[in-house]
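Q: What residues go here?
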């Protein structure tokens, strides 16, 4: 009986009877009814967990570095150093801070030209108050657990997508090589391959005046020479103690030309990020056998999450599957498109199509992980939705929710835009672009290629789903002392006097 397949509504009453019999309660009294409902819900969830084989250790079989290892320690210094940006004003951490969920708490990032480069979150602005980076900054937490691809459009992609490998097994394609083609310089895993690109982006780190018009290789070589204090980069940093930091990390006495290459920079940064594994959530505790780890609402929410829309669930697991809560594939879900867009004109963004050139891939984005999702707002590829509640309303009724978003000028309620003058007319094509994506979703649903099922969740069910999503957060990520090992120290992690000590707009250290 315990191996029975999915529990349907018709079987439910039988379970109610069974559970009540086991508990020796006759029913009828309110309190007993409630206990009974809870027991039924837990039994149903446990059956789902068995059927979908959810009780797995998300890091099993992986070789992961510890933050205390020498390479991640070097990587932390590099990740927080503004020396990797053309104009010495942006670090990786400027958009991916450990205390901001591994992101930047903005809808769209401000990279170069920030008025106060140390300020993060609401109040980080550049001269014209408008973000120039077209997509939301995703979390770098758990980057070691991706086996398929990185970026919203999967443009850094493992060719074989072997599970447990983080891209190490069969070659990685990148924007340097083109889709489907191995980039010989990508390095040993997806994190390493990815780390080669932010420094080449004008808006994120490179700036307009550094290595203008030069190749990605020239940009990286120049930065390595700057860090190594050799060749074209010699003397660019007034303070430079990087060589000893590299010698310690690589346990080598080689010189800067040998040791301080961009490959080694990317390796160290990748190992730092790969040490940021935060999976110890209440949900995981429940899977590990702690039956009191989840609230009643979270248990009901979990059932909705893993149940198909046809069976009155949310159908979320169609795409948010596996212990990372992502299938690693790209889908059209039609979240609003705001901001300057990704280079296709009229502030639009074609998503995965920009990588593959396939018209079918327009408006598709990689399913994000939902681990720690309560600390990674705002949501979606352009950060349009401020809350999980907004996201859940979208899944209930995409068209109405996107309509409301534009009717109510919700863009101008986002922390990033609320003080921008003329906010309502910033992106005149945004509504139309967003509806193009919704039309695409309709087309996919009509021709049967979409995994997005229309769901009918009431307010209570959405609250339950939200309780479940909140239970996917590892408490460490909200606790500064727990996160301290990943935050650069102004003295110990500052070989070039360029360390980012980030603050909020009020000057309080993050
Ligand atoms: C100006 C902000 C900014 C800076 C600086 C920046 N990033 Fe990012 N990062 C982003 C954005 C935006 C994306 C998503 C871009 C996309 O998908 O098109 C991203 C994506 C990523 C991802 C992929 C995560 C995933 O799940 O797909 C990783 C890893 C990452 N960045 C690491 C880094 C590293 C390492 C550096 C420094 C070398 C860095 N970032 C610098 C904004 C930034
Ligand atoms: C068809 C596949 C699919 C289904 C089904 C689906 N999602 Fe998503 N989900 C996505 C994609 C793709 C995105 C990114 C959309 C974007 O960036 O525009 C996303 C984004 C999200 C986000 C925002 C995460 C972030 O970091 O920005 C949350 C939260 C979320 N989904 C929860 C859910 C829940 C809850 C359900 C079930 C009610 C669900 N999803 C069903 C594919 C799916």
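A:
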């Amino acid at each position: 009986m315990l191996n029975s397949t999915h529990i349907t509504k018709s079987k439910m009453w039988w379970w109610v009877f069974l559970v009540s019999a086991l508990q020796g309660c006759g029913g009828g009294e309110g309190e007993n009814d409630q206990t009974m409902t809870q027991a039924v819900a837990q039994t149903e969830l446990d059956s789902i967990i068995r059927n979908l084989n959810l009780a797995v250790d998300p890091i099993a079989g992986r070789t992961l570095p510890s933050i205390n290892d020498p390479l991640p320690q070097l990587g932390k210094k590099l990740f927080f150093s503004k020396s990797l940006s053309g104009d010495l004003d942006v670090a990786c951490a400027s958009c991916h801070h450990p205390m901001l969920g591994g992101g930047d708490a903005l809808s769209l990032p401000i990279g170069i030209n920030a008025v106060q480069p140390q300020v993060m979150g609401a109040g980080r602005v550049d001269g014209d108050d408008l973000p120039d980076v077209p997509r939301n900054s995703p979390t770098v937490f758990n980057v070691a657990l991706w086996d398929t691809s990185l970026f919203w459009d999967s443009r850094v992609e493992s060719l074989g997508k072997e599970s447990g490998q983080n891209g190490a097994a069969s070659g990685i394609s990148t924007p340097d090589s083109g889709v489907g083609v191995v980039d010989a310089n990508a390095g040993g895993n997806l994190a390493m391959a990815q780390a080669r690109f932010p420094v080449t982006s004008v808006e994120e780190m490179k700036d307009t005046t550094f290595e203008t018009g030069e190749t990605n290789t020239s940009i990286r070589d120049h930065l390595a020479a700057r860090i190594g204090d050799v060749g074209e980069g010699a003397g660019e940093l007034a303070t430079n103690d990087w060589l000893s930091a590299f010698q310690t990390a690589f346990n080598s006495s080689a010189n800067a030309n040998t040791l301080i290459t961009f490959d080694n920079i990317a390796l160290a940064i990748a190992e730092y990020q790969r040490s940021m594994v935060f999976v110890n959530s209440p949900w995981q505790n429940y899977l590990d056998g702690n039956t009191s780890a989840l609230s009643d609402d979270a248990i009901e929410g979990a059932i909705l999450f893993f149940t198909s829309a046809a069976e009155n669930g949310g159908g979320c697991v169609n795409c948010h599957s596996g212990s990372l809560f992502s299938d690693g594939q790209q889908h059209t879900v039609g979240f609003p498109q705001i901001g300057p867009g990704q280079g296709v004109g009229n502030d639009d963004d074609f998503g995965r199509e920009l990588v593959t050139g396939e018209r079918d891939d327009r408006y598709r984005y990689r399913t994000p992980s939902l681990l720690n999702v309560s600390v990674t707002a705002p949501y979606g590829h352009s950060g349009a939705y401020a809350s999980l509640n907004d996201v859940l309303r979208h899944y209930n009724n995409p068209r109405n929710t996107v309509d409301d978003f534009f009717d109510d000028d919700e863009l101008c309620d986002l922390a990033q835009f609320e003080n921008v003058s003329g906010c309502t007319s910033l992106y005149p094509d945004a509504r139309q672009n967003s509806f193009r994506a919704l039309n695409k979703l309709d087309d996919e649903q009509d021709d049967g290629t979409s995994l997005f099922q229309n769901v009918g969740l009431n307010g209570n069910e959405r609250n339950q789903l939200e309780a479940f999503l909140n239970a996917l957060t590892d408490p460490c990520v909200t606790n500064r002392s727990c996160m301290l090992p990943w935050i650069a120290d102004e003295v110990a992690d500052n070989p070039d006097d360029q360390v980012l000590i980030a603050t909020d707009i009020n000057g309080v250290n993050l």
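A: Context that may help when evaluating the design: Confidence is low (pLDDT under 50) at residues 1-28. The longest strand covers residues 156-158.
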